[in-house]
Fold this sequence. Notes:
Layout: H1 3-39, H2 43-70, H3 82-90, H4 94-111, H5 117-156, H6 161-187, H7 197-224, H8 229-246, H9 255-271, H10 281-306, H11 320-341, E1 350-352, E2 355-357, H12 370-380, H13 384-387
Antiparallel strand pairs: 1-2
Amino acid sequence: MPCSLRAILLRDLILGVxxxxxxxxxxxxxxxxxxxxxxxxxxLWAALVLSLLGVASVALQVFxxxxxxxxxxxxxSSQLSARCLALLHLLQLGYLYRCMxxxxxxxxxxxxxxxxxxxxxxxxxxxxxxxxxxxxxxFLEKTPQLTLVLAIVLQSGQAEYYxxxxxxxxxxxxxxxLLDYHRALRTCLPSKPVLGLGSSVIYxxxxxxxxxPRVLAVALFSALFPRYxxxxxxxxxxxxxxxxxxxxxxFMPDPRSEWLYRAxxxxxxYFSWFNVAEGHTRGRATIHLVFLxxxxxxxxVTWVTQSAWLPSxxxxxxxLPVGGTSFLLGLGLRLVYYRWLHPSYPWEPDQVxxxxxxxxxxxxxxxxxxRMDHLAQNFFSKARDEAALPWPGEVNxxx
Length: 399
């Protein structure tokens, strides 16, 4: 095996171990917080943490199980039987099994003197699914948990050691998932190199700096008006769900599971940008940014007009400049990334009756993750009208 390939495989194995460790550490911090809330008599807070954990875990198992059922029967020949897999997912262990399977396949490839092309492609197939599941878990559990903990800290006026630990692990997990997902999309483009260190840092920073003001805005709203935050989330979530439906997503293998995907994407869009359809990414990203910014400004106006102080006595004037500065820095870095670091991908879709047709997995000689390929083509492809120009058009996504 070439030394460069062996080094890359070893790096991926280390990152996989770190990813599983981060997941387990964050899970432990949530259960630690639940036990402390119960011991202190804060049963509502404990119930909210457990509810977020339960909803996210069930959604992850459903996604994992549906994808396994949709994959070709001979692809996962080394897996457990269907009954054992169903039992693992029922016990909420399907995601961890996926992670362990990915590590096992990566270790198998790393130990081979001359890696098999099939084993390499299959390891990549598994890692892409894990990256997608990690992203879903981040926005269904880690980000809401971070918002809840911040709201509790702002309302109580103090942060316990287990809360600080949960905040740190949440930020670490969110940042890891966002960067890992983008790097996974980049691997779906065989003509493009792996995302470099500089691009990774910029992408990581602008996502984190734009996500932080949104989380802070929702946390402040939850601390000041805890009775209305659920109504606020539900109202915006329905609007975002309708928007996702209008874009005609086609990610899952059947219509019923597609609605689960759309509901998950709507939750992601409540906090951050996520592209789900091909075409002009710039226009949709701008609309979404303006929508979230307007909603955050409305919440700020509500805080200022209703109450200038949190229940703990913390003045809002100390927190608003922090959020505004973070937003401006994140927006600037986002412009830098899309102007100089965002890759183009001259992908030409196959046309069948005026629609885009993607080749099924059976038509490939090696395993290829059609789900992530679909998202990568949406994220990196040129708009159709720009691709048809005789001169190089503007890269889709460049601001």
